[in-house]
Specification:
219 residues; alpha/beta; five-stranded mixed beta sheet; 8 helices; 16% strand
């Protein structure tokens, strides 16, 4: 898509955001993005997501189809990866300077790498707090992808962490629902002494462990 030569990559926020890519084609030199450039609805628009193996995958397929229907001269090339595979895929694309026009990224240090490497567009004029679009977005979500006073990621979703508990186990051991981190540790000690594992994680993927470590470390 001709406009993509003036676009940068959009990244996903709070947990993730979408960004506009600067590199155009394998081995191409990075092009400084201009989100305000006039759009010519023709050519191919490449989009990289991390929802290939999740229930959200059909959503992006439907969005791509709807966009192509609105703009018949545009072909959307949808690249759907998994939560794990998108990391390796993104690193390879960055190394070859061939990021898609729109790509997924997490916030934090992962997203900051794209900004420092001149691989993300300054979208302040598009989603800044004073813009028409920016006023419709949750401020915390947009701010999660703010670097040096500029905004580089369009929020895709926000997530929250919840910790459930087994009511039967707590009732059997005479435990109350933990109200503090110290209470949680005491409950875990009691459950462990009873012969049960207080908290368990599956071994299929390792990344969910950070969802426990991160929030607990902030307590």
């Amino acid at each position: 898509m001709r406009h993509s030569k003036h676009a940068a990559a959009i990244a996903l926020t709070a947990a993730s955001a979408f960004g506009l890519a600067m590199g155009q084609g394998l081995g191409a030199e990075a092009v400084q993005a201009d989100p305000g450039a006039k759009v010519e609805y023709s050519g191919t628009l490449s989009v990289l997501t991390k929802f290939g193996l999740q229930q959200l995958s059909p959503y992006f397929v439907n969005v791509a189809a709807a966009y192509e229907k609105l703009h018949p001269d545009v072909k959307v090339e949808l690249i759907q990866e998994s939560d794990d595979s998108v990391k390796g895929k993104t690193k390879t694309l960055v190394a070859s300077n061939s990021l898609p026009d729109i790509y997924f990224s997490w916030t934090g240090s992962w997203g900051a790498n794209f900004v420092r490497g001149n691989r993300a567009a300054d979208l302040t004029k598009v989603i800044g707090p004073d813009t028409e679009w920016g006023k419709t977005l949750v401020p915390a979500a947009v701010k999660a992808f703010q670097y040096n006073g500029k905004y580089y990621g369009i929020p895709l979703y926000l997530d929250a962490k919840f910790m459930g508990y087994n009511k039967q186990v707590f009732a059997k051991l005479g435990l109350s629902v933990p109200a503090t981190f110290e209470d949680l540790l005491k409950s875990c000690d009691a459950i462990r002494k009873s012969g049960m594992t207080p908290i368990s994680l599956g071994n299929k993927e390792a990344w969910p462990a950070i969802h426990y470590i991160g929030p607990i470390a902030r307590l």
